[in-house]
């Protein structure tokens, strides 16, 4: 099988690397941390101009219809460059969700401004009863006249403080723990009965807990058929998970490069510590974990587009489970090999460490994804 990239993908990767590594960097990262919503409007406009915000969206709604591999090329570069802008939580996840479940009218209304950078979206799906399984949805949506009344609580809705529109999962039938009966709704975060509690996320970015108290929406707010939103939500979360795995891979590789460079200049006993064989072995261990992670990310980015839902689930969850462990190892080794300076605010290594620590639980932790793989039918 040929795993080489096409000429268009090579250009896409080169442009993403130039933006993330030369046009962004640690200084811009630190400056963005101080901005409202940790969002740099200039960087977001650049990403829209490059066509990256349109990449995950369908061509029928003004997008570019990019593949999972195309998206992974972007997010790997964003991870290496510490880019904070909410590409995955604000574009990949809601964009894929609308592409899979939204009506033509909803797609034409929401996706073009999303691709142009003029609209911020967020998806609220995690709940107190289970922060990792989207099927555990206790938020209720009761039919009422020509619309619905929605009540419940959502946790850690990424990018919600920046969003003009929330996409919320709510149960219109069935019981918590079942995928059947979950519906998806557009909700205005400024609507009566909606309360957001925003906060910063470890490693960068923002999120909000969302309380919905008798929120009334019209029937037009329903995304897809009532009670049939789970399949689209699960698939969109898999796309987001594959994308953040590539993002973590970029951060891991950046840590390896910085650690190898540091060992060449840090001296002890009159020689560079990189000459000590035991530290060379630790670098090799980091390299092996990264290359194995790269193979897993490549598999997930290809199979996330599969029409076979079980194949998609298996590939994405296996990749997330592996990288949750590998990224922790690489981040810890990088900090230890840098010594005390590795956890200072002035060095990017500690910031990468925080991002990779947060990645471990993002869109489900290692145990959640191992359980998911174990529950799938054996691959043929």
Keywords:
380 residues, Butyryl-Coa Dehydrogenase, subunit A, domain 1, four-stranded antiparallel beta sheet, 10 helices
State the helicity in percent bands: 40-55%
**Any idea how many domains?**
3
Low-confidence sequence ranges: none
Strand fraction band? 15-25%
The beta-strand count equals: 10
Structural notes for this entry:
The structure is a single chain. This protein is α+β, with helices and mostly antiparallel strands. It folds into three domains: 7-119, Butyryl-Coa Dehydrogenase, subunit A, domain 1; 122-227, Butyryl-CoA Dehydrogenase, subunit A, domain 2 (Beta Barrel), CATH 2.40.110; 231-374, Butyryl-CoA Dehydrogenase, subunit A, domain 3 (Up-down Bundle), CATH 1.20.140. It has ten helices and ten strands. It has helices spanning 7-33, 41-49, 68-80, 87-101, 104-115, 230-265, 277-303, 309-338, 348-359, 366-374; strands at residues 121-124, 140-144, 147-158, 165-171, 182-187, 194-200, 206-218, 222-223, 267-268, 271-272. The protein has a four-stranded mixed beta sheet with strand order 1-4-5-8. The protein has a four-stranded antiparallel beta sheet with strand order 2-3-7-6, with no helix packed on it. A hairpin with a 2-residue loop joins strand 2 (140-144) and strand 3 (147-158). The longest helix is centred in the middle third of the chain and has 36 residues, at 230-265. It is globular, with a radius of gyration of 21 Å. 47% of the residues are buried. The model has no long low-confidence stretch (mean pLDDT 95).
């Amino acid at each position: 099988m040929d795993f080489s990239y096409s000429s268009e993908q090579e250009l896409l990767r080169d442009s993403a690397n130039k933006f993330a590594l030369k046009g962004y960097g640690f200084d811009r990262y630190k400056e963005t941390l101080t901005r409202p919503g940790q969002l740099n409007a200039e960087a977001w406009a650049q990403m829209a101009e490059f066509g990256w915000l349109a990449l995950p969206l369908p061509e029928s709604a003004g997008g570019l219809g990019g593949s999972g591999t195309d998206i992974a090329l972007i997010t790997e570069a964003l991870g290496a460059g510490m880019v904070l802008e909410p590409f995955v939580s604000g574009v990949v996840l809601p964009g894929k969700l609308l592409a899979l479940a939204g009506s033509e009218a909803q797609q034409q209304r929401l996706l073009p401004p999303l691709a142009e950078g003029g609209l911020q979206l967020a998806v609220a799906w995690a709940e107190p009863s289970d922060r990792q399984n989207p099927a555990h949805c206790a938020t209720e949506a009761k039919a009422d006249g020509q619309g619905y009344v929605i009540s419940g609580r959502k946790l850690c809705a990424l990018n919600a403080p920046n969003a003009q529109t929330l996409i919320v999962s709510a149960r219109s039938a069935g019981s918590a723990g079942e995928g059947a009966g979950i519906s998806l709704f557009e909700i205005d975060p400024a609507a009566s009965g909606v309360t957001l509690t925003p906060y910063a996320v470890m490693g960068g970015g923002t999120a909000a807990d969302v309380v919905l108290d008798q929120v009334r929406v019209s029937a037009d707010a329903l995304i897809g058929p009532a009670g049939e939103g789970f399949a689209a939500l699960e698939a969109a979360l898999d796309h987001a998970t594959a994308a953040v795995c590539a993002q973590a891979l970029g951060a891991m590789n950046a840590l390896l490069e910085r650690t190898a460079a540091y060992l060449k200049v840090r001296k002890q006993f009159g020689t560079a510590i990189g000459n000590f064989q035991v530290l060379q072995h630790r670098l090799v261990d980091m390299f092996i974990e990264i290359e194995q992670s790269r193979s897993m990310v490549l598999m997930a980015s290809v199979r996330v587009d599969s029409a076979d839902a079980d194949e998609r689930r298996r590939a994405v969850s296996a990749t997330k489970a592996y990288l949750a462990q590998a990224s922790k190892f690489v981040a810890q080794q990088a900090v230890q090999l840098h010594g005390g300076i590795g956890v200072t605010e002035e060095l990017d290594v500690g910031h990468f460490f925080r991002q990779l620590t947060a990645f471990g639980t993002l869109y489900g932790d290692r145990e959640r994804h191992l359980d998911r793989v174990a529950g799938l039918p054996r691959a043929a």
